[in-house]
Design goal:
Layout (H helix, E strand, L loop, with lengths): L2 E7 L4 E5 L4 H7 L18 E4 L2 E3 L4 E3 L9 H9 L7 E2 L9 E4 L26 E7 L11 H13 L8 H13 L3 E7 L4 E7 L7 E7 L3 E8 L5 E8 L9 H10 L3 H23 L7 E8 L1 H8 L19 E4 L13 E4 L9 H10 L8 E5 L4 E6 L4 E6 L20 E7 L6 E5 L11 H5 L6 E2 L1 H13 L12 H4 L4 E4 L2 E8 L6 E4 L1 H25 L6 E5 H4 L4 H7 L10 E5 L1 H11 L1 H10 L4 E2 L8 H7 L34
Parallel strand pairs: 1-7, 11-14, 14-16, 17-26, 19-28, 20-22, 26-27
Antiparallel strand pairs: 1-2, 3-6, 3-7, 4-5, 8-9, 9-10, 11-12, 12-13, 15-16, 17-18, 18-19, 20-21, 23-24, 24-25
């Protein structure tokens, strides 16, 4: 019987397995992180997976409806007793019977995703849209008949000068029992941004309501649960964006929507469900009720923005990249199927800047405020799709650049997303070429005598985005890699860690004592990083061209990933233009902080709604010089642009003659 192609997401690991192989066994064969406690007997449910269906052009596979075996008796019994979510299968029971794309949800992963998007400690001036108002409502009177809502409105007008407030039908249905339960006293949450009642509580409520600030990224969804009275973050967390199984990058998801009828509807469904579950989890973590969340602010790139709203993103996949709307969006939580929130909760979505520069870039502009600065500032939100801002109080430009998922650890031979056991820091001795590293979950370096006992071989699982960036930059600084990105041979570099791999070479970072597990940086890994960093640098250079400048005064690396990039390594790699290293800083999750600002401040909303109309948009997809900049940026750090603030780099040239040579950088 023939074998079949199996692709596991979000890891991106793939391979061929024999017909009839259980998914759990296939995962183990391909080194995929799929949990199981019961040994494959269908009891523990730890190995739940979600198979995809339809055409996946970026992955090069089309998945038939019968790619996995039909439900068997074990799965039916489990579903009857404990319940399986729609679309879920037990990996130990489902068998591969065709080419298939399989999503491994976070709860089925042994090493769960660490979404490192912590809340910023930058101060926010509190002026939330939603506030509480306690009123005493007149009781009904036979002589002066009127409705309970009319008397509530009269009380709000008399006591708080609030007039003509709207109320959703779901709250109107609850109004009478709430008034009588509170003996005609009621606390009303009013959204002043929209003039709406968003929640009701009987009697006096002293606790401030809750708000949710959400950064909807293409790879991860991060959220901060906030006290709308003080602005305090009560809980923060994140999950993988389940849309990743439809494509790792944005254009893959647009392609999926184009090629699969109803594909956009399915992507909308899963992302709304993920946000709803995340809201419930954060509330539980804080010991609070998700039903007390009366407002949410969401930011995301244009494709995420449209899919969240249920708008087909097909127009964003082709020129002129037209948005359905660029304005801020205000709507009710039930319209987005966010059932965990208060029934009358309101959702505010920041405005988009352009077809490829979304509400997340607007949130970054709000948080970092380059429009209010004197120095010329470059702000780069590093991710699968990088958003770039350049300017100061005189002028502000924006663009996006398709860096792809390599910076997230995808497309890398030993790559994985940031999770315990992933190599996140790398240093290489330039003399001995011996590397040392740190993994997520431990503060010890690998050359520490206590490292082996603390981490163990099973505790080293792969290399994440920050780790691969440092590894490539360190290889360049140690002379293992030349300017063009070629890895030298063992003879050229002087270390047996440079191994032959077909017609190219690879550099060995780590090998288990038994020799059966290794983490290598391959030539293909280098190329993937070169493509990603070239797109990033080319976008920045394009904005610099528009302003007519050759240097910037300040560089800010934003995003969860940007927070863990070493400025020196980023510059050695050529991810960012040359600048004083002291002028390169991390802003952490600036998009998330911008969402918090909009959640806690009506003034912030007014400011960003005005600012996006002044930001000048540059479209990299049609800019004539983008390709020129992209090609020149393939060199490490760059083919022509000077980097005077870097130390002199070794300049070997690993050519076919097999001899390395040294020259000083001009």
């Amino acid at each position: 019987m023939s074998d079949h192609q199996v692709i596991f997401m979000p890891s991106g690991k793939r391979g061929r397995v024999a017909h009839g192989t259980p998914v759990l066994q296939a995962a183990r064969q391909l080194g995929v992180d799929l949990d199981s406690v019961c040994g494959g007997r269908g009891i523990c449910s730890r190995c739940q997976v979600e198979p995809g269906a339809g055409a996946f052009p970026k992955l090069g596979v089309t998945v038939a409806a019968d790619a996995l075996s039909a439900f068997n008796a074990v799965e039916r019994r489990y579903d009857e007793k404990r319940g399986l979510a729609p679309g879920r299968r037990l990996g130990c029971q489902a068998k591969v019977e065709g080419d298939v794309v399989i999503d491994v949800p976070p709860e089925s992963q042994v090493h769960r995703q660490v979404v490192r998007k912590a809340a910023s400690d930058k101060p926010i001036v509190m002026d939330p849209a939603t506030r509480l108002h306690f009123v005493t409502v007149a009781e009904p009177d036979m002589d002066h008949p009127s409705g309970d809502l009319e008397r509530l409105r009269a009380a709000l007008a008399a006591e708080w000068d609030l007039h003509d407030l709207d109320i959703p039908l779901v709250l109107l249905r609850r109004l009478q029992p709430v008034l009588r339960q509170g003996d005609w006293q009621v606390t009303v949450a009013v959204n002043h941004d929209e003039g709406r009642i968003s929640a009701l509580w009987p009697g006096l409520r002293t606790e401030a309501p809750l708000g949710l600030a959400i950064d909807l990224g293409s790879t991860t969804i991060a959220a901060h649960l906030c006290d709308l009275g003080t602005g305090e973050v009560r809980a923060s967390g994140g999950v993988m964006n389940p849309q990743i199984r439809f494509g790792e990058d944005l254009m893959s998801r647009v392609s999926y929507a184009m090629m699969n009828e109803g594909g956009d509807v399915e992507m909308t469904r899963v992302v709304r469900g993920a946000i709803d579950r995340l809201a419930t989890e954060l509330a539980a973590e804080a010991g609070l009720a998700a039903a007390d969340i009366v407002e949410a602010v969401i930011v995301g790139n244009p494709v995420m923005h449209h899919l969240l709203l249920g708008v087909d993103p097909v127009e964003l996949g082709q020129a002129p990249f037209a948005l359905a709307t660029a304005d801020a969006v205000r709507l009710g939580a039930p319209e987005l199927d966010l059932g965990a929130l208060a029934p009358g909760a309101r959702v505010y979505i920041l405005p988009c800047i352009a077809g490829h520069v979304g509400a997340d870039a607007a949130a970054v502009a709000l948080a970092e405020a380059p429009d209010q600065a004197e120095p010329l500032t470059l702000v780069v939100d590093v991710g699968t799709n990088a958003e770039i801002l350049l300017g100061n109080r005189e002028r502000l430009l924006a663009c996006s650049s398709p860096t792809g998922p390599a910076f997230e650890g995808a497309q890398i031979s030993a790559g994985q997303r940031a999770a315990p056991g992933a190599i996140e820091r790398v240093e290489i001795d330039p003399a001995t070429k011996v590397p040392r590293f740190r993994v997520i979950g431990s503060d010890l370096w690998s050359d520490d005598p206590a490292f082996a006992e603390a981490v163990g071989e099973d505790g080293i699982t792969g290399i994440c985005g920050s780790g691969i960036i440092e590894a490539v930059a360190e290889m360049r600084m140690a002379g293992i890699l030349d300017r063009s990105g070629l890895i030298g041979s063992a003879a050229q570099v002087g270390t047996d860690r440079c191994e032959s791999s077909g017609r190219t070479h690879a550099f060995r970072i780590w090998e288990s004592a038994s020799g059966d597990r290794r983490i290598l940086v391959t030539q293909n890994d280098i190329r993937a990083i070169q493509l990603a960093k070239s797109a990033l640098y080319a976008g920045a250079r394009l904005l610099m061209d528009e302003l007519g400048v050759d240097k910037v005064d300040r560089v800010t690396l934003a995003g969860a990933f940007g927070a863990h990039i070493s400025p020196r390594h980023a510059m050695v790699l050529g991810m960012i233009p040359d600048a004083e290293l002291s002028a390169v800083a991390s802003a952490g999750n600036a998009a998330g902080h911008g969402a918090r600002m909009a959640l806690c401040s009506r003034a912030a909303r007014r400011h960003i709604e005005g600012l996006v109309r002044r930001i000048e948009k540059v479209e990299t997809a049609v800019a004539p010089r983008f390709q020129e900049h992209f090609v020149a940026a393939n060199a490490i750090p760059h083919a022509t642009d000077p980097f005077p603030h870097l130390d002199t780099l070794p300049e070997p040239s690993f050519n076919t003659a097999g001899e390395g040579r040294k020259r000083r950088r001009r």
